[in-house]
Predict the structure.
Amino acid sequence: GNGYDHKAMAITAKGAWISVQRHFRELGTDVQTQTIRVAGVGDMSGDVFGNGLLLSPAVALVAAFDHRHIFLDPTPNIPAGFAERQRMFALPRSSWDDYDKALISEGGGVFARSLKSIPLSPQVQAMLGVSADAMAPGELLSAILKMQVDLIWFGGIGTYVKASTESNADAGDRANDAIRVDAHALKAKAIGEGANLGLTQAARIEFARTGGRINTDFIDNSAGVDCSDHEVNIKIALNGEVAAGRLSRPDRDALLKVMTDNVSELVLRDNRLQTQAISLAETGGAAAVPVLQRLIQTLEGRVGLDRKVEGLPGDDVLGQRAQAGEGLTRPELAVVMAYAKMAAYDVLVTSAVVDDPLLEADLIAAFPAAMQGTHRDAILHHRLRREIVATVVTNAVVNQAGCTLLVDLAKETQLSVDQLV
């Protein structure tokens, strides 16, 4: 198919890995060169899981599971593990059972989830912090989720963590009821949510409030959707050129291919700026709560933000948190930021702002460099021009000036959102 192959580009995993890099960079660790111990959900044939565990040669994968197998490697040989994961990723359909057992450290192994009981070696007991000689597979999976690691990397299907205030039914994933753990029991430093709903939103918030580093799935795995958006916008422009006879179909296909890395860069820039925006918002701490509270109230009125649905605290709870010196967590800020962007976009897309000739450069910069000269007119006359400009401007304002700036300024100046932008 003439389009962008997400798995070949590893785009979703790369976007989620940017979240991981930032979490650890802010903890003082460069995950590209410094070892982090990782537990994961998924297997090497999976797009997000497989690609993600090949993004740093310094990763020490100590435990992982999917619906078929459990992989345990208490003291991994890091370079050998990296090479073996590469080999498995390249196989047509690999499972953990394909892992070369000779490379697994002492006491480790690959176990089928269909076994009645799995023996635990002294090394595995020490790694998991348990004393049992054997465990049923479900018990072992819960123990893996609760073990002391730097990172849990979610790449598979299923919701594995709930808040202590929630029931299993709240998690809405009956298949994993027996395995699921409460967020406060997690000992990981950070979580990368490349999959959808690895944790409930309430679980993310609980984990963050105990000092864990986490965003949300829609922040971590946004690169796939973002890539598709770029592809649609590019194809609309180029198909118009083909229809007008300015570009042949084979040349269009060749151009799409040539631009792959450039599209990837445009997408990953969004991931970098978005996770940075959450970090900047987080530094506001308890002092920022009153302004955020006002923003939330505004968003309830403007874009129908529903606190219950989105798991955002009521005003009384927010007040108590601020009093206790606590601000909003990253998962909460991610939701507020998403709605702040929606609200700004809704105003801008129908406003005169998007027609400002000063924003032409931003419109053009939203496309790969290889199109910017040759197909400049196709970009300028794009039928989604207003939507693209409104998106670019919204992201620039919210990512760089913070999600509360517009509400703050509106209160001070009595100006409308489009005037402020």
About this structure: Residues 260-282 form the longest helix (23 residues). The beta strands are 36-41, 59-65, 69-72, 109-112, 118-119, 134-135, 151-154, 161-162, 181-182, 190-193. The mean pLDDT is 97.
